[in-house]
């Protein structure tokens, strides 16, 4: 019997114990929380500031369209500043430098004293995906709207004034000698490279352009040889005062400033040609028409799912954290690459404190203001962190935001296959490392090598398969399953089968293999054993049009070769063990890898053997949340409402006190703004409301008393479930399509 089938049986047994409500959903009140009500509710979470920035970009707001983004702030002197970023603006050596760079900084000056001694407001309109700035004094009113077109690679600044204003727009590079000096001392970071100055293009007429041309150090056969990225700024009634500055030809009441950006895999001339094409595309749609389409995109985004929690100030904080993280994900994950966990596209000037050791080992403290090009743990993608941003996009229905994630890791698997062939002699076999450049690359792993956190570690490749499998289950996208999921499964399983031997019973012997990054070189670690069970069982449910009969026969045999999930005794309680044999190993990191069998590989929890899941949670060694710690998620999937609630509240209150925007999480182990903090919160909150197994949908499996909510969430098989929660009960529920109604159960304590 497959794991998924066992989970469905577990639900039936649980229902027989009268834990599930027998109330028919058709008898519940049909009152719905409409799209209009959701958008109205959303506006209460807009962020508004009544004073200009006091700490520069640390007092900025984020904005973006998924690929092009900006931090936006107004200085006390009245200048509007934008820190510009693209998701594909990679440094020449992603390992030696800090990887993803800013495009630069743009300063817009509105004459003398545009904002001082005025009524001031800067508001992020979530519904519209725009920032609105207002300055009023006794002589004039200045209104500014900043937005990044949801459908085009252009950022627009619309300026409207009661009185004519002069205007100056200046590009400020981050790669000048003075700016490059803003970095921590040698020894603190892996920043060993040398960034090149930006090239300001000469001879522009009514525009300013700059590029960064880079030659990449190859990490794999898929690494690009070079690239050229940059931006162009133009506007109405503007002329060049210098190659990097524009001024208005005459004072005016209305200005439209456009920042257009692109990236090409070649040099300056190709970039100029590509930019001309992009400008023609942007100019082909009037700004007013583009604005309407832009707003429609954001409204459709916000109405495809929502969670609004109420009941106390903690509930409001959790809702705000959920909404702002989802907004930032939409601003940074619709381009060529996934979100960078350590800052996304919103790194900023930051007062960084720390210490390095001298040659004698003595600590030397430092306190330095770094600029937006810097990010700690900057160069690579770390799967352990990145995945936490993307798991909650399934229940949100944000499938378009997930595609860069699957696109990049799928391409890495393809690139790494030829490398694996050369390193190991394996055919049609691949995997990716926990830490990888955007273009892949492998270092050979021998069983005799000493233990290290990410050396004997292949869990990330298995979790990628689990996420791809869930994506197919939610979307029923057979083209994705055929072109991405199944080929990846063939390659990853092929590598594991050729890399590892068999035990005396003919089972796959995962030895030596890390259990998470915590227990090194152990035997049959719980995360990977659970992952193989979960993934193989799910793959057997793929339709014949996607997976061949040979695939399914192979997976069926492979499933028989997987060892049981290790279970044993701890403090007199039956628990999941981190591995079949730890070999006396000491902890090398602070994780609870045994709970990977609860999430992400959901073999145990509210659907099956929840006592084991709960006891494992209660007996865990590491009690922690925030960053990549997953206590709230594991608590929710074990049906522990109070513990899950405490965890999401803790994350919601983890905003970086150095920053003004409440969605910018503190750096924790990573860097500000940390993106996996709120990824944990989002997944946990969703699981508190709804969990699924096979076709079964369980509502309120870990919902705390005292909190109410309105929700609309996505479930597998192209299903949407929405309703209200009041006094711990589901007061209204609707299911689309209605044929799935009979698959929904409601947990009532």
Offer a few descriptive terms.
single chain; 749 residues; alpha+beta; nine-stranded antiparallel beta sheet; seven-stranded antiparallel beta sheet; globular; disordered N terminus
- Span from first to last CA? 30 Å
Calculate the mean pLDDT score and round it: 91
Strand content: 25-35%
Q: Report the radius of gyration as a whole number of Å.
A: 26 Å
Give the helix tally: 17
Query: What class, by secondary structure content?
Result: alpha+beta
Largest sheet descriptor = 9 strands, antiparallel
Model description:
The chain is of the alpha+beta class and 749 residues long. The protein has 17 helices and 36 strands. A nine-stranded antiparallel beta sheet has the order 1-6-7-8-9-16-13-12-11, with helices on one face. A hairpin with a 2-residue loop joins strand 34 (719-726) and strand 35 (729-736). Helix 7 packs across helix 17 and helix 10 (459-475) runs parallel beside helix 12 (526-539). The longest helix is centred in the middle third of the chain and has 26 residues, at 399-424. The radius of gyration is 26 Å and the shape is globular.
């Amino acid at each position: 019997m497959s794991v998924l089938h066992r989970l469905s049986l577990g639900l039936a047994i649980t229902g027989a114990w009268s834990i599930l409500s027998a109330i028919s959903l058709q008898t519940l009140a049909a009152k719905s929380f409409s799209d209009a009500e959701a958008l109205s509710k959303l506006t209460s979470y807009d962020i508004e500031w009544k004073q200009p920035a006091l700490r520069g970009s640390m007092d900025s707001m984020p904005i973006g369209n998924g690929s092009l983004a900006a931090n936006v702030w107004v200085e006390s002197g009245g200048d509007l500043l934008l820190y510009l970023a693209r998701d594909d603006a990679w440094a020449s050596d992603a390992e030696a430098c800090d990887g993803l760079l800013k495009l630069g900084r743009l300063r817009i000056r509105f004459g003398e004293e545009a904002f001082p001694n005025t009524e001031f407001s800067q508001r992020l309109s979530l519904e519209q995906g725009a920032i609105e700035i207002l300055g009023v004094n006794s002589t004039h009113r200045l209104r500014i709207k900043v937005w990044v077109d949801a459908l085009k690679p252009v950022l627009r600044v619309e300026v409207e004034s009661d009185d004519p204003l002069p205007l100056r727009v200046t590009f400020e590079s981050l790669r000048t000698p003075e700016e490059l000096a803003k970095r921590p001392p040698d020894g603190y970071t892996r920043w060993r490279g040398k960034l090149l100055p930006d090239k300001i293009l000469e001879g522009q007429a009514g525009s300013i352009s700059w590029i960064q041309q880079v030659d990449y150090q190859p990490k794999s056969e898929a690494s690009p040889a070079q690239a050229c990225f940059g931006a162009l700024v133009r506007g109405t009634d503007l002329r060049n005062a210098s190659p990097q500055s524009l001024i208005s030809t005459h004072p005016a009441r209305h200005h439209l400033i456009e920042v257009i950006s692109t990236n090409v895999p070649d040099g300056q001339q190709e970039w100029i040609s590509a930019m001309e094409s992009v400008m023609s595309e942007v100019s082909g749609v009037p700004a007013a028409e583009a604005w309407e389409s832009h707003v429609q995109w954001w409204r459709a985004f916000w109405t495809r799912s929502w969670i609004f929690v109420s009941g106390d100030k903690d509930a409001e904080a959790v809702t705000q954290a959920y909404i702002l993280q989802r907004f930032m994900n939409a601003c940074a994950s619709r381009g060529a690459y996934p979100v960078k966990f350590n800052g996304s596209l919103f790194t900023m000037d930051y007062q960084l404190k720390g210490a390095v050791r001298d040659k004698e080992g003595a600590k030397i403290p430092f306190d330095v203001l770094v600029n937006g090009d810097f990010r700690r743990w900057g160069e690579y993608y770390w799967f352990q962190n990145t995945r936490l941003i993307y798991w909650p996009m399934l229940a949100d229905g944000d499938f378009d935001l997930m595609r860069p994630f699957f696109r990049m890791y799928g391409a890495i698997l393809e690139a790494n296959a030829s490398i694996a062939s050369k390193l190991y002699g394996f055919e049609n076999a691949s995997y990716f490392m926990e830490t990888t450049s955007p273009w892949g690359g492998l270092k050979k792993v021998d069983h005799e090598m000493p233990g290290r956190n990410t050396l004997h570690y292949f869990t990330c490749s298995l979790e990628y398969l689990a996420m791809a499998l869930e994506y197919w289950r939610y979307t029923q996208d057979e083209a994705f399953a055929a072109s991405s999921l199944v080929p990846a499964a063939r390659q990853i399983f092929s590598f594991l089968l050729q890399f590892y031997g068999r035990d005396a019973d003919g089972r796959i012997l995962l030895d030596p293999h890390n259990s998470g990054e915590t227990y090194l070189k152990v035997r049959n670690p719980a995360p990977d054993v659970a992952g193989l069970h979960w993934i193989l069982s799910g793959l057997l449910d793929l339709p014949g049009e996607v997976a061949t009969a040979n695939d399914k026969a192979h997976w069926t045999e492979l499933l028989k070769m997987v060892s049981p999930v290790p279970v044993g005794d701890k403090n007199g309680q039956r628990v999941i063990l981190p591995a079949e044999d730890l070999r006396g190993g000491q902890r090398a990191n602070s994780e609870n890898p045994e709970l990977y069998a609860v999430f992400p590989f959901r073999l145990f929890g509210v659907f099956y053997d929840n006592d084991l899941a709960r006891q494992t949670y209660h007996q865990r060694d590491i009690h922690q949340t925030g960053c990549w710690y997953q206590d709230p998620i594991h608590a929710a999937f074990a049906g522990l409402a109070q513990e899950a609630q405490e965890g999401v509240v803790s994350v919601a209150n983890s905003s970086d006190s150095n920053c003004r925007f409440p969605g910018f999480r503190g750096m924790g182990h990573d860097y500000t703004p940390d993106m996996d903090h709120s990824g944990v919160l989002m997944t946990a909150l969703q699981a508190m409301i709804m969990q699924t197994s096979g076709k079964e949908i369980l509502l309120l499996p870990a919902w705390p008393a005292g909190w109410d909510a309105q929700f609309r969430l996505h479930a597998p098989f192209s299903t949407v479930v929405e309703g209200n929660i009041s006094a711990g009960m589901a007061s209204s529920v609707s299911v689309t399509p209605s044929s799935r109604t009979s698959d929904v159960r409601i947990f009532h304590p």
